[in-house]
Amino acid sequence: MTQADCIFCRIIAGELPSRMVHQDEVCVAFHDINPQAPVHILVVPREHVASLDEATFERRELLGHLLLTAARVANAEGLTRKSSGYRTVINTGAGVGQSVFHLHLHVLGGRPMSWPPG
After folding, report:
1. Active site residue 104
2. What is the Cα–Cα distance from 31 to 9, expressed in whole angstroms?
3. 11-51 pLDDT, tens per residue?
4. CATH code, domain with 36
5. pTM of the prediction?
């Protein structure tokens, strides 16, 4: 997949609509179009990185920023007040559910979740 074909790159560029909840110079966050929980938000870096496997040591600040943004978004959505918390997930590879090959972090909440997932 090229960046021109990447749905997340197109959302970031404003070519496709989204329900955006956060934007900064490093990442964006928007509601998933196929939610798996009452609240399901994706935190996506503006830089095209195909998966966590491509996130080298040099990208550690990017990864930290994504996690901190996920926590801010979850709190802004009231997930720590409405429920017992939220779950963050990064899928890496098609075999575990990665369907868009642009690194993204799922923020899920608003319902009870069991363990182990999947």
Report:
1. yes
2. 15
3. 999 999 999 999 999 999 999 999 999 999 999 999 999 99
4. 3.30.428.10
5. 0.94
